[in-house]
Amino acid sequence: MGDRPTGSKLVQPALYRILDANLDRAREGLRIVEEWCRFGLNSAPLTDECKQMRQELARWHAPELRAARDTPGDPGTELTHPQEEQRSSIEQVLQVNLCRVEEALRVLEEYGKIYTPEMGMACKQMRYRVYTLESSLLVPQRQQLLERSHLYLVTSPTENLFATVEAALQGGLSLVQYRDKTADDNVRFSNAKKLRQICQDYNALFIVNDRVDLALAVDADGVHLGQQDMAIATARQLLGPHRLIGRSTTNPDEMRQAIQEGADYIGVGPVYETPTKAGKAAAGLEYVRYAKEHATVPWFVIGGVDTNNIHDVLAAGAERVAVVRAIMQADQPTLITQYFISQLHRIQTIRAYEERIAKPHV
Q1: Model confidence pLDDT, tens digit, residues 9-42
Q2: 275 is in an annotated binding site
C-alpha cells in the first residue's frame, strides 16, 4: 500500500481494526444487495455494479488490516438491537443493508484518509455510487406501487381501526393513510406503528397524515400534507428522496404549485361536502375535469366519495379515488373495497380500449 503514517503503538492497531471492520461490513452489505439484484430482479447491470464495488473494496482489504482483527476482544460483537432480529419485507432488507454500506463507507472515507488518502477518496466516490444504487432499487418500488394504486383509504378514529383497515387490505387495497387529528402522540405512535406493520404484511403503502416526525418514527412510506402544513421542500429534506409526499389541493392554482414543488401525488377535492373537511366548500366535479386534463402526477378524488356517487366521479374523468367513511364506517369493509376497486378497474379498461380504437391504424 506504500508509505503511510503509523502513529503510536496504540493508534495503529485501533485504526487497522476500524478499517478492517468497516471493509467487512461494506462488503457483506453489498453481497446481500447483490443477491437480490441477481436472483430477485435478474438484473445483470445492477448485479455487476455490486460485484465491482465489492472487488474494489477487497483490494483495499490488505493482510495487515485483517491481521489486526480481534473478534474476541471486540465489545461491539455483543451489542444488538431488537429491530435487527427480524425483517418484514425485501424492501426493508435492502434498505437496512444499503444504509449499512453507506455508513461503513463514510467511516472508511474518514479513517482511510489517515491510512492513505487514496483510500479515503475511493470510498467517498463509492458512497455516491451506492446512493445511486439505492435510488435504482428503492424509489421505483414505492412509485410503481403508487402508480398501481387507484383506491386510497384515509382512516378516521374508530374502535375497529385495525380490523377495518385489514379487512380493506384483504379486499385488495394497496394504499392507506393514517389520519387522527385528536389523539395524543403516544396513541398516534402506537396506532401508526401497528398499521405500518399490517400494511407491510399486505405489501401496501402506508402514509401518515401531516406529521413528518411520526412518519419517520414508524418508517412510513410517506406523508400527506395539507395546504397549511410544511413546505414540500422542507418535508423532502427531512424524509429524504425515497419516501412519498402527497399534497391536498382544492383548486387549479394549488394543484400547479404542488406539482411544481415536487409532490409525488395530489388529492383533488373535497368534491362533495364532507364532515372530514367541515366548513370547507366543495370543489365540485368541475375541478375533477380540470385535473383530468392538467394533472401530471397521480391524483385522487377525495371528499364525500361513496358507492352512490362513484359513477359521477368516474364520469367526470377520475381514475383514482380516496375514501374515508365509505370504508371506515362500512359493515363489510372487504366487500365495499372490492366494489370500489372493480368500478375503478372497469373504467380503466374502458378508457384503455377507447384510446386504442381512437389511434389511427398504421
Answers
A1: 557 889 999 999 999 999 999 999 999 999 988 8
A2: yes
Query: Rounded to an integer, what distance in angstroms lies between the CA atom of residue 1 and that of residue 67?
Result: 15
User: What's the pTM?
Assistant: 0.67
Q: How far is CA 355 from CA 294, 300, 314, 361, in A?
A: 18, 21, 16, 12
Instruction: Provide the terminal-to-terminal Cα distance of the chain, rounded to the nearest Å.
Output: 64
**Closest residue by Cα to residue 218 from 93, 79, 83:** 83
Active-site residue set: 179, 248, 277
Is 180 annotated as contributing to ligand binding?
yes
CATH number for region 149-358 = 3.20.20.70
Per-domain boundaries in the chain: 11-137, 149-358
178 in a known ligand binding site:
yes
Distance, CA of 82 to CA of 212 (rounded, Å): 24
Q: Quote the CA–CA distance of 239 and 133 in Å, as a whole number.
A: 18
Q: CA of 324: how far to CAs of 19, 146, 266, 305, in Å?
A: 53, 18, 16, 8
* Grid cell of 110 as nine digits: 474518514
Q: How far apart are CA 18 and CA 66, in angstroms?
A: 11
For residue 16, give the C-alpha cell. Answer: 487497522
Mutual angle of helices 252-260 and 285-294, in 10-degree steps = 40
**42 dihedral zone (left: phi>0; alpha: psi -120 to 50; beta):** left
Tell me: is residue 277 an annotated ligand-binding position: yes
- C-alpha 138/C-alpha 89 separation (Å) is 12
Is 140's pLDDT higher than 80? Answer: no
Is 11-137 assigned to CATH 1.20.140?
Answer: no
